[in-house]
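Retro notes (design track)

What went well: tokenization of the new backbones is finally stable.
What didn't: we kept losing track of which sequence belonged to which structure.
Fix going forward: every design gets posted as structure first, then sequence, in one message. First example under the new rule, 127 residues:
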């Protein structure tokens, strides 16, 4: 688990007062302490700091959440949720660590099985 900010070789940083809207793709570790809206895509690590607020669809290798995230999350390696963090939305990851005080509000899929889809084959007549 990620313990201290000093131990992270962070490649990019979005500060507390910053707001970014759009698509973010990167290699290495990126930390967001500000606000982000849009889409995030990487095979590496995203760190959401204590003041970070994300509204996005997120595809990452590793997600370290200390702040707030609202959206769909796909983590190919693992997700770490620290105390006071919140993830709201559908989450898919093979490994999940949730510390006391963290909140996950949504659906969690930790297997490779696809969810069943219901398809109407016969159109119903309206009366």
């Amino acid at each position: 688990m990620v313990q201290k900010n000093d131990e992270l070789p962070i490649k990019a940083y979005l500060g507390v007062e910053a707001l970014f809207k759009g698509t973010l793709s990167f290699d290495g570790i990126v930390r967001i302490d500000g606000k982000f809206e849009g889409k995030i895509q990487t095979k590496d690590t995203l760190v959401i700091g204590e003041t970070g607020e994300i509204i996005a669809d997120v595809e990452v290798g590793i997600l370290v959440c200390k702040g707030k995230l609202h959206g769909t999350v796909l983590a190919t390696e693992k997700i770490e949720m620290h105390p006071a963090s919140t993830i709201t939305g559908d989450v898919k990851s093979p490994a999940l660590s949730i510390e006391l005080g963290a909140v996950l509000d949504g659906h969690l899929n930790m297997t490779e099985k696809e969810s069943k889809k219901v398809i109407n084959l016969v159109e119903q007549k309206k009366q």
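Added context from the reviewer: The chain has one domain: 5-109.
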